[in-house]
Design a protein that fits this description.
By secondary structure, the protein is an all-alpha fold. Helices cover 58% and strands 0% of the residues.
């Protein structure tokens, strides 16, 4: 890992720290995740996998048939 230095707006930085704390993550973790997305913006498979992991706790409690999934 390489150390780097940035200048950032103090208010934005404080809000980012608070959000990271609420997510029980470090600002360093958040930055590294952002950096991966920034470098590989068209890596849809990785983004899909991350989204599915983030929402793995969601369970509808049943399987829906095609008609039920398409109901509005």
């Amino acid at each position: 890992m390489k150390n780097i230095t940035f200048k950032a707006d103090e208010q934005l930085l404080e809000k980012a720290r608070l959000r990271a704390k609420m997510e029980k993550r470090s600002l360093n973790e958040v930055f590294n995740d952002w950096l991966k997305i920034y470098i590989y913006p068209f890596n849809h498979h990785r983004n899909y996998t991350k989204i599915m992991q983030d929402f793995s706790y969601v369970d509808s409690g049943k399987n829906f048939n095609r008609d039920e999934m398409n109901e509005r």
